[in-house]
Design a protein that fits this description.
The structure is a homotetramer of 362-residue chains.
Chain A (H helix, E strand, L loop, with lengths): L1 E6 L7 H13 L4 E5 L12 E3 L38 H13 L4 E6 L1 H12 L4 E5 L15 H22 L1 E7 L6 H9 L4 E3 L7 H13 L5 E6 L9 E2 L10 E2 L5 H12 L5 E6 L11 H20 L4 E6 L2 E6 H6 L9 H8 L7
Parallel strand pairs in A: 1-2, 1-4, 4-5, 5-12, 6-8, 6-11, 7-8
Antiparallel strand pairs in A: 2-3, 9-10, 12-13
Helix pairs in contact in A: 1-8, 4-5, 6-7
Amino acid sequence: MKIGILNGGGDVQPLNAVISSIVKSGVHDGHEFIGFEKGWEGVLSPMLYRTLDQKAVRGISHVGGTILGTVNKGRFAAKVGAGDKNKIDDEILNQAKANLEKVGVEALIVIGGDGTLSGALQLADKGVNIVGVPKTIDNDLKSTDKTFGFSTAVDIATEALDRTHTTATSHDRVIFVEVMGRHAGWIALNSGLAGGADMILLPEMPFDYKKIVEFLRMRKETGYRSSVVVVAEGATSKEGFFVTLEPAESTQKQEIKLGGISNTIIHNIEKMAPGEFELRNTVLGHVQRGGTPNSEDRILAKQYGVAAMEAAVNGDYGKMVSIRDGKIVLVPIAEAVAQLKLVTPDCLEVHTAKRIGVFFGS
Amino acid sequence: MKIGILNGGGDVQPLNAVISSIVKSGVHDGHEFIGFEKGWEGVLSPMLYRTLDQKAVRGISHVGGTILGTVNKGRFAAKVGAGDKNKIDDEILNQAKANLEKVGVEALIVIGGDGTLSGALQLADKGVNIVGVPKTIDNDLKSTDKTFGFSTAVDIATEALDRTHTTATSHDRVIFVEVMGRHAGWIALNSGLAGGADMILLPEMPFDYKKIVEFLRMRKETGYRSSVVVVAEGATSKEGFFVTLEPAESTQKQEIKLGGISNTIIHNIEKMAPGEFELRNTVLGHVQRGGTPNSEDRILAKQYGVAAMEAAVNGDYGKMVSIRDGKIVLVPIAEAVAQLKLVTPDCLEVHTAKRIGVFFGS
Amino acid sequence: MKIGILNGGGDVQPLNAVISSIVKSGVHDGHEFIGFEKGWEGVLSPMLYRTLDQKAVRGISHVGGTILGTVNKGRFAAKVGAGDKNKIDDEILNQAKANLEKVGVEALIVIGGDGTLSGALQLADKGVNIVGVPKTIDNDLKSTDKTFGFSTAVDIATEALDRTHTTATSHDRVIFVEVMGRHAGWIALNSGLAGGADMILLPEMPFDYKKIVEFLRMRKETGYRSSVVVVAEGATSKEGFFVTLEPAESTQKQEIKLGGISNTIIHNIEKMAPGEFELRNTVLGHVQRGGTPNSEDRILAKQYGVAAMEAAVNGDYGKMVSIRDGKIVLVPIAEAVAQLKLVTPDCLEVHTAKRIGVFFGS
Amino acid sequence: MKIGILNGGGDVQPLNAVISSIVKSGVHDGHEFIGFEKGWEGVLSPMLYRTLDQKAVRGISHVGGTILGTVNKGRFAAKVGAGDKNKIDDEILNQAKANLEKVGVEALIVIGGDGTLSGALQLADKGVNIVGVPKTIDNDLKSTDKTFGFSTAVDIATEALDRTHTTATSHDRVIFVEVMGRHAGWIALNSGLAGGADMILLPEMPFDYKKIVEFLRMRKETGYRSSVVVVAEGATSKEGFFVTLEPAESTQKQEIKLGGISNTIIHNIEKMAPGEFELRNTVLGHVQRGGTPNSEDRILAKQYGVAAMEAAVNGDYGKMVSIRDGKIVLVPIAEAVAQLKLVTPDCLEVHTAKRIGVFFGS
């Protein structure tokens, strides 16, 4: 059987481990593999692809990133003005289908987040045999217990928090570390719990500037002059992200983002409590997505890869491989993409953090 | 309420994180904590203990080991000739109970493996209020999804395998890395899967020397002259651990362990296939238990610690805190200790490993 | 003998290792140690200090930061309008001297950069017995081969570059990583060389925007669509840090720093070559100063600490301990502080980097 | 110019970084490179080699080991019974020379320790243009300040010591960690100093069993019941490595090595002080040579690689590239190989360690 492999959207550390295990688990049964490059661009004309055999995937499973490269959507982006915000141009879909047939691909394994998998679904509607593999560093899919990349990102953020603690303490500073998480705050929550953050700010739990200032003052009064705060990039205040400009500058609040939410936050705290705290921030950025995956993520990636290969061979199309309670489950892609797993105030991690004194900003 | 904390048996990296979160989650409700030192020895005369307040546990949660120290059983070891192999001397139990009462301990949180918890059960039978926290680096308890320490041990073993790969390849060597796991092979299985081992040998899946030699020969013939093998310390061959001594030395097989099973294995392979392979072994040993816990283990430890404190306050005695599907569950200690979770040949990890070509020795 | 210990200015990872080894190397000869807190503030009224004995320094030498805390200058800052930009108020100096006498300090070991040591010199002029220990994470002192903290900072920056490579390659991006180094570019140079940067921008070698764009284009044409660039925070362009504002906004170049030089650079490249490159940047910030020191830095710190204690006991005052060719040398503080070691275009690191194709921006 | 590259002897982490930088620094001047595989075997019939161009060395410089593979001596081993213990068979040397000429190699860069370089010298005597690059993980060459691989090995050993500390303390154990170093104890000395070892045992400073037992007893009496000891594999006692066998077994001392010197040592201490200490040992083994090189070693390796390429082009034959005081120096191979740099009792590291209370075993 000839199986295509494609990944789309942002990269995560264990992508190569997924690709490698798909190939390794299939070649000894005689299956052939084609890797499409640069996400959906690879299946559009002029096609970008190469044969993936045992040798092509040797020694890559602990190397971060993806040997196939990746792009965000590209021509698979929704057609502007199409009404449906995800609807891809029909011609583009037909072209992709025709190209896949031309090179003899019988099933296509698509590794991606909701954007990439939404494209995959539309291709499936055209009759292409699709197997989905979830890829979200935010671990925010309800249909699966854990997604690969998340654990490594948490490790990296935790290490940054560990390093931040010693310098915050030495200088009596309040240091904000901004981590990934636009809609789901799992990376901030887990790294904050692991890295001993004093405050955790999440998209799901809007914060209150006044209460933050009160909290920092309370700490100072009880002898904790330094604090380490982890902020998800999508954290929001109840009031929105205003920056209180000086009267001379403006007569009203303005919503301005100053190079990352953490920067806005320290700007506003300084306005509210001038000179009270020595505030600093760091935006971790791209380092969270790169480098060697940790052991848990490598294992997860290999489990997903093998399961996807088996689903492709078994004809389980239109489905996404998931892991629940240590077992592989196949769920319809449509359903899987629809349901996000967000942080809730009563989840075990939040409960644990609150009990040991972590403040969530409101 | 006055709550005692005690840990027994071998140390694991996140013990201090457990202790710290028990204390931190209880002090703000007015509870007091006493930490007993050196395991059960701490509650026997002369008692060894100290008050644990907020300050005593500050900054310890990412430090490996335990501030309380630990011993294996000590006087809580079974009375020799008592018939029941776990039965502790009644006088010792009475002394412990009396001592706990003397210092006013209303509930005792016991962090330990089956040995330590078996002692806790006997103390519970005497009327002591016990809350159990499972501690096994081998992750081999059925009643809970994951135990702390395991993930860090897997990380350490995986890193050792990563390092071994480059030197094995450069020298065309077959290198055996021996990791912890006397009865359960989860550390070997997970690190082997993560670290790209070519062969994994586990206590639960006895190996066959002849098949191992065949496998190594097959690899050599197909161009893979180096191999990396991970061996659990409790791995066994189907034939037992004989060392074939030279005729001059002996006329029969002898069961001898030569400083670790990995050493015995390479000795025997060399006997069976003299000069065919350049064989080496490394026994990781104590480094697997020590140092900074990884982020997952710190989170787990804090979840267990908070849950144990809550169980103590809620009067859930004779129970062990467990985590299932991201939720805290309380299970009777007696039941929890009884059921081991061993590697099975059809579990997801073994299945995945086999599919990508890993050999399990038979 | 009663010896005071004081550190000032920004923290570096191995400070505790210095403090610890000063104390450990002196106590067995009967010397006593007083640690002053918060830099120079600790010796001013009301004094902040504590006795440092064997127990006080146990287990701290691999913990980042400083148990004494630190501030930048504080009241030891130069008196405004004093003419000499470093001249401290005479009253402040007298107060410090009197306080040191009051607690019986016979010699004061001062660990700090040029700011802190300049204060120490003025105190020495008042008759205080001073031994200096150089502290600069930038490794920019001519009088000593290597300063502690530098090697760990290079490790952290290199790891960030390693992680950046995989994501840059996967996405065909040009990613700038901004590291410490206001005047000296050693961290950028060394991490860039170790971490395989394609371009390194340093304060000592002003860059040319046009040539940078040419270099990135040349790489793209020869098939390297991704690039990783390391930038010292003090890197400057030959033209200054203008941001070309749109005609509607302004009619002229403006020197604006947009949250870090790396941000300014990608802004300007985007203006010069709109849409040609997918540009991103990360500012590493405080994580470079914190956390566990690496092995080299711990060794260096212990060598400096022991040497400083010996100098204090031997009466080698007004001198700074230095290491040259693996030997301790004592140099007059005045002289030591004066001479910076900057990157030169013909040093071995720059030469090596250029030979293997690294571009320095002009 | 056509330049050959060959590495021999045990692998070290930064070998690929050396190879990569030789090639990268030469290709843009039009030079061509041939990599010989499996050490000297690669230049003997049948030759094993391949062309190394820019693409062949891409992305390898942070990967441990060597893409060329390596063997110890092989047919370049000294001819048995030749009188001179290093004298290689003349026919073998002639064959190597002829083969090098056949493929047009004008200069051969040989990366190796004293064994490999001694072979290179004999080939140089036959008229082959040789440039040597020192490779010794033990950092024991007088002619150069630092050799690559050493710093990474020290990091690995230090991390093992860090992990050992927490478990030793928790259990009141005396744990011996055995590290590389047959003749020179630099790895043990540096990792011991960095990792806070309580005792360091080196080949250059023979230890005294009685004094070791006294030291451990003294520690116990002063409240330090746990100790961490680092032992170089070549450490020796003043009495030799006897194992005192029981009277029934033997009437005299026997020199037996029980799987590593650390094992012998704990065996003997147990005999001398039965039951007094809970003794354990770990032999780090091969993990010290493998995996990703640290930043310092990558920089060193690139400096050596570029310098070797330049020496080859400049016709500096019969010389070894060295680094002294941050500058490249060329020294005659014969001279370079002859002079070892061993630990001396008055070197800065030993002095520092002793001052802070580290015991050297006598």
